[in-house]
Design goal:
CATH class: Alpha Beta
Number of strands: 11
Number of domains: 1
CATH architecture: Alpha-Beta Barrel
CATH topology: TIM Barrel
Shape: globular
Strand order of the largest sheet: 1-5-6-7-8-9-10-11
């Protein structure tokens, strides 16, 4: 079984958000030719996408080609819109979450979903989180690597964490709005350098901010193999010990003590890097994630894992599906039972 924890989806259309909310800065789609659309922020081009970004049918066809059984759907991070007025981000989050839930409901053997929240307004985020889990039956949510000027150790976010822990909701952390992007205008460096740093920022904020001391049962998964965190863990841990006056402000728990509580996707594009992650975190904390359907993703999801002849079949099974099921709080039989019902 293959479960891809890291895939992005959009509705094929949505209302004119500038007209709906009264100001700009929102993403809109221009369907300028068959099966293709431009993502525009006001009149600025952001990204070209194809129908596999919105069409469940196109996605299933490509999943069948790549032998992917289940995609876990989440919105495209540019749709977080944490910068906007909270009630407007909530309204859009509800639209996006309803869309994802409807795709899952129509094809429950092929899709699971993660919601999005107005994280800049934790009280509203908690309410939408509760709706995602209780009403929409989503197993968790996707959040950004930071929330405007807040890193993920911001105590204002603790009510969201408390609610997620109580609900048993998984939290998938995805980098966005990359740091230092104004200093990296060329060579696609915000995506190549800024994104890995963003993910490490999120992990270190959670570890040093005492988030896991306070909420030990939270399940966080970090995109893109944890970014630059795994390869700089030695430096991070060394800094923890040599400058306790600067680092040990909110926790005295060593970084490695919490590694068994963190999850990571497998999107590292390099067999040696993946071996290092498995050795560092264990296969019980690493899961297939492809970043489908975008260029920086793994174009044949799971191909890297399947190509590694030194991994046992048991380890591959864990990486391809077992860890994802645990992270999502789902049982393998859930999809099998749904499939049996659908086949009738």
């Amino acid at each position: 079984m293959k479960i891809d924890i890291h895939t992005h989806i959009l509705p094929e259309s949505w209302p004119d958000l500038r007209e709906r909310y009264g100001y700009g800065g929102w993403v809109r789609l221009e369907h300028h030719k068959p099966c293709c659309a431009r993502m525009m922020i006001d009149d600025r081009f952001f990204r070209e996408i194809e129908e596999n970004c919105w069409s469940p049918e196109a996605r299933v066809k490509e999943c069948d080609r790549d032998h992917v059984d289940v995609q876990v759907l989440s919105t495209v991070p540019v749709m977080f819109n944490y910068w906007a007025q909270p009630e407007h981000t909530l309204d859009l989050s509800r639209m996006l979450n309803d869309h994802i839930a409807s795709v899952v409901e129509r094809s429950p053997t092929r899709f699971a979903g993660l919601g999005t929240l107005p994280m800049q307004a934790p009280e509203l985020a908690v309410k939408e989180l509760e709706r995602c889990v209780k009403e929409l039956k989503l197993p968790g949510v996707q959040i950004g690597s930071h929330i405007n000027d807040w890193n993920l150790d911001e105590e204002s976010l603790f009510p969201v964490y408390e609610a997620a822990e109580s609900l048993g909701a998984a939290i998938f952390v995805h980098p966005w709005d990359m740091m230092g992007k104004e200093k990296m205008p060329r060579y696609w460096l915000p995506w190549l350098v800024g994104m890995p740093a963003e993910t490490s920022l999120a992990i270190c904020s959670i570890l040093f901010g005492g988030v896991l001391d306070r909420f030990p049962n939270l399940r966080f998964c970090f995109a893109h193999g944890g970014g630059s965190f795994p390869m700089t863990l030695g430096r991070i841990e060394h800094g923890f010990h040599v400058r306790p006056d600067l680092v040990q402000i909110r926790t005295q728990t060593e970084p490695r003590a919490h590694l068994s509580k963190l999850y990571f996707d497998s999107l590292v594009h390099d067999a040696n890097a993946l071996r290092y992650m498995i050795d560092l975190f264990s296969a019980d904390r690493v899961m297939l994630g492809s970043d489908y359907p975008f260029p920086l993703g793994e174009h044949a999801p799971g191909a890297l894992i399947e190509s590694m002849k030194d991994l046992t079949d048991e380890t591959k099974d864990r990486l391809l599906s077992g860890t994802a099921l645990e992270f999502l709080g789902l049982e393998r039989e859930v999809f099998a039972k749904k499939s049996m019902v659908d086949s009738r």
